[in-house]
Amino acid sequence: MEKQAVLLMSYGTPNRTEEIWDYYTHIRHGKEPSQALYDELVGRYEEIGGVSPLAHITEAQRAAIEEKLNESGTGEYQVFNGLRHIHPFIEETLTEILNQGFTSIHGLVLAPHRSTFIDQYHERVEAKLQTHPEVTYHPHYHFWQATGFLTFWSDQIQAALHPTRKQKFLFTAHSLPERLLANGDPYVDEIKEAAQAIVNQVEGTVDFANAWQSVGRTADKWIGPNVEDVTEALVTQENYEEIIYLPFGFVADNLETLYDNDIECKEQVEALGGHYKRLAMPNVHPDFIAGVVSELLSSNE
Fold first, then answer.
1. Alpha helices (H) along the chain
2. Annotated binding site
3. Mind listing the pLDDT tens digit for each residue in 175-202?
4. What are the binding residues for Fe-coproporphyrin III?
5. Carries keyword Lyase (predicted)?
6. Which domains does the chain have, with CATH numbers?
7. Binding site membership for Fe(2+): which residues?
8. Does the predicted model carry a pTM greater than 0.85?
C-alpha cells in the first residue's frame, strides 16, 4: 500500500523572543508593528513565561497523530507540520513532501470549525499542487464532529458540573472580521452546532452560552458578542457565581488561552466577584488525537 503524507496546518507561533518581530510583521502582511505594539505583544508573552508553549505542543500533536495513524492498520503515514506565519511555512513543508515523492496528501488545519479563513490554508496547498497533477490532495474540514473531540469536552463539563452553584459554561472561539463571513460562511453556525453537540452528551442540565474572544486590532467590525461584555453581564446582571470557559475554537494551550483567558478573563471575573475556571485544552489528550485520526481516515473508508 502506498505511503501517504499528512500535512497538519496551523497559525504558528514564535519559538523564542527573537522571532516575535518577524512573526508579528508577517501577520501584518509585511507591515512592521510600531515599537509600542511590539512591546505590548512581548509583554504578553512574558506574562505567560516568555514564549507560548504552542510550538512544542503542535510538534507533540504531529508525533501523536502519526503514531496513531500508523497503529490503525490502514497503511503507512508520515505526518508533517506546515505553518501560516512562521517557518516551516506551508509551502516549504509541501515542497519537502513533494521532494520525498508522495502522491497522496491529506491536509488538515488544526482548527475544529470550518470558515473561509480556514479554507485559505487548503487553497494555498491546492495552488502549489496545480503543477503536480500526479498528486491527489484530500482536504479535511470541521473535525469538531469527531466523537473524540466531542467526548474530550463533554467529559470535562460533566466533571465540572456543581449541583448548587450557579454556573455558566462559556464556549469561546477566536473572533473573525465580519467581512469574512459573507457568502454563507459556516463558521458561526458550526461553532453553535458544536457547542450544542457537546452539551447533548452531558448528563444533567448545562447552562451555557457562546462568546467570541481575541478580537484583532483592525478597523474591521468583528464577530460578537465579545467575551468581556458577556462575562460582565453574566456576573453583574445575571448573578452567576462561576464562569467556566471552554476555548474550544483552539486545540492547544497558546497565547489566547494562557493570556486572554487565564489572565484577562480571570482578572475580570474575580474583580466582579465571581469565580473563574477554564477547562483543559486538548493538546495531546488521547480522545482528541483519536478524533483527528478518525477524520483523517474517513476519506480512506
1. 20-27, 35-47, 54-70, 90-99, 116-129, 147-160, 187-200, 227-236, 255, 266-271, 286-298
2. 11, 28, 44-45, 52, 174, 256
3. 999 888 877 899 999 999 999 999 999 9
4. 11, 28, 44-45, 52
5. yes
6. 4-143+285-298 (3.40.50.1400), 145-278 (3.40.50.1400)
7. 174, 256
8. yes
